[in-house]
Amino acid sequence: MIETNRPAAAPAEDEPDLLRDQFRQLLRYRRLIGAGVGIGLLGGVYLGVSTADTYVATADIVLRAPTDDPFNPSLAPDKAINIGSERQVALSSSIANEAAKKLGVSSADFSALRAGLQVTNPPQTMVLRFTYTASSPAEAAKRANAMTEAYLLKRQEALDVTRDKMVKGYQEQRDPVVKQLEELSKQITGMPAGPARDAAYSAKTDQQGKINTLNGNIAKLQALDMTPGRVTSTAVPPHGADGPGLPMSLALGAAVGLALGLLGAWVRLVFDPAPRSEGDVARALRAPVLGSLPRSKADGGPLLAAGEEDPRLAEEFRSVAFRLAYDSRFADRRRLLVVAPRGSSEIAAAVAVNLAASFAETGKDVLLIEADLRTPVLASQLPTDAAGRPRWSQSQGAPGAQHGDTEWPDGRQLLVDAGESGSFDLIPGERVRNVPRALTSQRASRLISEADSPNSTVVVLAPPVLSYADALALVDRVDGVLVVCNPGAVRRTDLSRIRELISGAGGTVLGTVLHAPLPGEKKRGLGRAPKGGDPAAEEPRPAQPAPAPPPGAREPQPIPYEVAAADAAQHIPGDGTDTVALRTVRTGRR
């Protein structure tokens, strides 16, 4: 016997499979991606239109530091010039004022004149690049050249002012020393020879040295080359607009918008509590996905799928049944509990019925037990025949059990005609006053133990596991659990909680069957209430105990907790009571 699933962890996936799975999940958020592309296209249109009449002219200036020997390689102009400060000076208002005088720009257009200028410095160079943007090619070149001329002029003036101040400072230091030297020379002329005259000569020599030093500094400053720089590239009118053009702008906008849309979809995916792939479901339940029900081509169909009406659906149920049959944990005991997470159990009922038919098709003696004692409906929805007395009633060991017994199971059994698949036995559910006592009774335990007989299989349908504790009361006797859910209407935390509850009760999740949303589930979304209703109305409330029927009267059939309004008018003739039909089962792949 081959064990097809591992309860401890989901099957490992290689990196390419995970990447493909994540990409498919991102494509589910087509609205976000489309919104991102739309925003990008709008930005591309704006960029293309705004830059259609924009022209850019460029001029380059190489800065020079003042030097007395421009051919000396040891002089480093990059240390004498702070290129960052010079760039800020080029963008200052003083340069713009000087350029405005040359261009004849009024004070009202002064701000626009400054706004069109950009000054950059190419790395590892002493070059300032003046870039001017204007609405016409000639204007752009004219203003760029005016800005460079104004900058060179202002820099020349600043260097001249600095040199003149330094020369004036040296002259102010030299003039007092010259006067002192003249007075000392007069004194030496009238002094007699001796030590005093020698001291005067020494002082005269010192003062003469100071004067020579100051004169040398002044001569050095006056000999400096004060050229501020030279224009290496004069601005010329550009041949075309600066913008990338409308086609290129649209392409860039679409690319950026697609990136933004994918980023938004990824963020939405990260914070989405619902499982968006079969891998997420398998990881949350630590059990494989045994099947995904295809979408029915017809608008509706019976609860029991027929191979001729929908062969894909019938084959999917057979595939799930065969995978369970080759699972050693199920094959050892042949007991299966079918449950839904929460909400409606319509699809879970359809899965339980069709799996019973698939097992019967393989030659098994199948017993389907409807353990949903709160909303039992299978007896009214399946083609049954109560004329025969199948062997399941004989093993109940309840002599004298009547059809109207208030306890469940009361010995009533039905034979379900599954068409070409054969037939199987059904123990229908009944409304009881104490559901936990009925599910844990000895008669219910003996009924489930029929799977111990050779060539026998028992399928048990229970209410949603997160809505009621009925399924957990059956886990210790059934062991194997099949979860039927819509991945878009359940949270990953709910699936993890289901696994913990079932494991804590001594059972094992054998696998999962996925299906498409029921009518109305897409509009509700996760955690939302139906429009115009109470938020608690999304989940079924526990059924209240029905009042005791009058003596001799039959207990009416229960009404399902989720029925369509159109189905409420359908009455099934039988024993004189009205039974509301199940909503048409819609199965499908997300």
Walkthrough of the structure:
The protein has 590 residues and is an alpha/beta fold. The protein has 3 domains: 48 residues; 179 residues, 2-Layer Sandwich (Bacterial polysaccharide co-polymerase-like); 243 residues, Rossmann fold. Helices cover 44% and strands 12% of the residues. It is built from 20 helices and 13 strands. The protein has a 9-stranded mixed β-sheet, with helices on both faces. It has a 4-stranded antiparallel β-sheet with strand order 2-3-1-4. Strand 2 and strand 3 form a beta hairpin. It is elongated and about 155 Å long.
Brief summary of the model shown:
By secondary structure, the chain is α/β, with parallel strands linked by helices.
The tally of structural domains comes to: 3
Q: What is the level 1 CATH name of the largest domain?
A: Alpha Beta
Which sequence of strands runs across the widest sheet? 5-13-12-6-11-7-10-9-8
- The CATH homologous superfamily of the largest domain is called P-loop containing nucleotide triphosphate hydrolases
**Low-pLDDT ranges:** 1-11, 393-406, 523-590
Query: Could you say which structural class the secondary elements and strand pairing correspond to?
Result: alpha/beta
Distance between the termini: 33 Å
Sheet of most strands: 9 strands, mixed
Which strand-content bin applies to the residues? 5-15%
**Number of helical segments?**
20
How much helix, percentage-wise, in residues? 40-55%
Mean pLDDT: 77
Annotated CATH architecture of the largest domain: 3-Layer(aba) Sandwich
The radius of gyration computed from the alpha-carbon positions, rounded to a whole number of angstroms, is 47 Å
